[in-house]
């Protein structure tokens, strides 16, 4: 993984005690390692918004933990459009499954905001996987959950209107951003290009839907920021109960 704007070393690491029923697995199907259990050296790197962290099809033997900010994971659709598969919040990991499998990265990782990542050697994760049956079980169950989540999103995207998909995406991103104590989850820092790529849909149609939601006082904001003003109304749009004209 490359593209760092700054790097330094700190004392951090990984231990079996980190894998508990409450803190071992991240809601977005990514393994979480709590700070107090990190005892091995890591490389700390900071990235500017939009900067590439790691490219697809690259073989690496390090995984990274998002210490601050958010990271987007994307791929290219057959028609050439970008599809943001996942937005990884604070405490999420990057490249952990590829390190375990010794495979190349499947997705491109890019800084969705100014962010700081802590990089660890892949052998740390493989050693834990080899020595802790409970950890292996959790990795497997979360991998299945991640596949199920993606399937549900694909099905919902095929059956829902763009306005409903957009509202659902804003609510989902609100949950992601809300994992950072510094963010209530009501303010999303995301460009219109990235939002269109997350759906995926054309930027023009997404802009039309955003304008309707702003006119209805459901959301507000601009210049790469979206603020949720009426969460209940947004939930109604997501469920298809309300259509804003």
Explained architecture:
- Helix content is 36%, strand content 24%.
- It contains 7 helices and 12 strands.
- The chain has a 5-stranded antiparallel beta sheet.
- The longest helix is centred in the middle third of the chain and has 27 residues, at 133-159.
- This is CRP-like cAMP-binding protein.
- InterPro entries: cNMP-bd_dom (IPR000595), cNMP-bd_dom_sf (IPR018490), Env_Response_Regulators (IPR050397), HTH_CRP (IPR012318), RmlC-like_jellyroll (IPR014710), WH_DNA-bd_sf (IPR036390).
- Residues 160-232 form the HTH crp-type domain.
> Which stretches of 5+ consecutive residues score pLDDT under 50?
2-37
Summarize model confidence as the mean pLDDT.
79
Structural class from helices and strands?
alpha+beta
Work out the helix count. Answer: 7
What is the strand and helix layout of this fold?
Layout: E1 6-11, E2 41-47, E3 52-54, E4 62-68, E5 71-76, E6 82-88, E7 93-94, H1 96-101, E8 108-111, E9 115-121, H2 122-131, H3 133-159, H4 162-177, E10 187-189, H5 192-198, H6 203-215, E11 219-220, E12 225-228, H7 231-238
Helix pairs in contact: 2-3, 4-7
